[in-house]
User: What shape does this take?
Amino acid sequence: MDFRPVERNLRQMFRILASRRDSGESRELPGVTIASLGSSFQMFNAAFFSSPVADETDFLRRVALASVQMSARGLPWAFWLCEDWLPSPLRRRAVKILDRQGLFLASEMPGMVAEVLRPPSREMPVLEVQAVSDEVSRRAFCQIGAVCFHVPLMWFEEIFDEQTPLRKDCLCWVGYYDGQPVTTAATVTDSGVIGVYNIATLPEFRERGFGEAIMRHAVSAAKNSSGLDRTILQSTRQGLRLYERIGYSSVTRFLVFTSR
Assistant: This one.
């Protein structure tokens, strides 16, 4: 299965978040995409490869290009590497090569695709799901994300700033249970697929189907507006089993490297 829609949708998500932002930057360089929010959270000051890498010389040239561009802004940054851009021998050495360039492996996650979602294997909980459309819902989205992704709230609010309700190409959702915000999801429709992001549920509400329920709601809304069935995501280790159960298969792997 082709990995490229997964990779392209991820880059587009970063471009969208960088838009409408004074500190944001989105640039296309030879073989490299810069999509930086100019944020305190270095994972979102990002560089990516945008085409196949020929060999180690090409690899190092592009890494140097990204490093010069990102370091000039004086911010910590992250390099999001989709392994399938690399020839097989280079994949095995990439971590050591990047370590020598001052980029250190921070996380890895499979990129996954589902042609259609399988029906639920259990009854879904009843949620009131609302699109992020105002400051109250935006703050609820950020508070859940900060808790679940273990980052300061101010970092999450930098990423999903006051422009979030205006970014119609990145739809964010909050799920409420008994009036309390407990779970989130977001979607980006691009490259012929629906990208699913920021699936998060507060720890005390996990194992009850809330994450799956809001994910299905977000996908259904995106499908109704786009006519697309295929969805993609990048999985955490904790979510992998759920995603496989509802129809996702791994097609690539992303390695995320940070500059410090």
The chain has seven helices and eleven strands. The domain at 128-229 is CATH 3.40.630.30 (Aminopeptidase).
